[in-house]
Design a protein that fits this description.
444 residues; alpha+beta; eight-stranded antiparallel β-sheet; 6 helices
Length: 444
Amino acid sequence: MSRAALLALALALAACRPAPVPVEPPPPPASDAHCAEHGVQATLCARHNPALAAVFRARGDFCEEHGQALSFCPVHHPERGGRPATAASGGGDAPAEGLKLRLRTREVAGWAGISTAEVLERSVAPSLEVPARLGWDPRRVARPAPRQAGRLRALHVAPGSIVREGAPLGTLESAAVAVDAGELQAARTREASAEAELARLQRLGAAGLSAERERRDAEREQALARAERAAKEAALALAGRGAGASGRFELVAPLAGVVIEELARPGDVLEAGAPLLLLADPTVLQLELEVPEREAAKLRIGQPLLVRLEHDDVEREARLDWLSPAIDERARTVAGRARLPNPDGRLRANQRGRVRVELEARAPTLLVPVDALQEVDGVAFVFVERAPDLFEVRRVRSGARHERLVAVKGALAAGERVVTTGAFLLRTETMRDRIGAGCCDVEE
């Protein structure tokens, strides 16, 4: 049935019911004196003030067994100390604990689309949930660049190319590299001459025909020539693979990964240090957290994280690697980081999600669907199904969310059923203005 038809039905039923007789709430207590005989606040004791019993009955908040308001009956709710959890009027428009709503007929539940879900008990822990996004791990990102200025002659890869470490990325041509190659050749020639001279003097020395001083000078010259040649070779090797007298060389991948972006095109003249492309290893990504300032003190390095990312049905595990010592002045958040393995490549940089951090040890906790939780004037409550056409208000205190469930504390038990779809309709029936009323009767 459409909402319009349902509303018409509710209004028609409302027109058929007599106007409710207004009931004045009990007067506010004059003091906090306690009735020791009956265990409740003296000014709200219905046993000593029989007129209050009628008031509490009219509000659906009366314990017939013990003759007191059900919401603070000392037997059913000893934790309240015989005092109401809210004002005696029930917390503004919030329905009283134990208020019962009965549908006119059982068929109305089907027309209204009312559905229920079971109260679950699970071992969960108080947790903190914060937004997060994935990025490249800076320890696994490279921007290969030439050490000498030169012209890019060819690119051997494109965005999306998977490369291994040492694979050629592009061919460049540099006059500076050609000069280095020429100087290397000269250094090799000087080294060869120094070695020949040293060998000659050593032969003459063996025959007693050369001075010791000349031989030592030749050894020093040979050592200098060898060091110069090694330095020139190292400089040319750093320029790139295959660097020679032509000035051409290949820039190679410093790590295995995927080409993310081209930063230059063939024909471009690159300055020394100008990157050719962006290369990243996607097998490990960096998870970046944004922790509210007030919650940052609850986290510690090494803490387990449960990660749920958009468009990914797998809950993944990570550990907090770093927490910033500074607070972002604008967002008032503290940055955190963790590494997230991605061996199958399903995750992508810039993907967003949520991270849940368990702050304490797990303990048995009651959970209800988020849709079941209603709130009026700051009072949270659910509707418990007592029969297919009878529902009872139970006030609760809500806690942390766990996916589409929320932790609650109150007079609930695991296995009871609470209203999910249609809870808002029942809620309107409990409010003073009776918005949309007409499909339920409030029972004493």
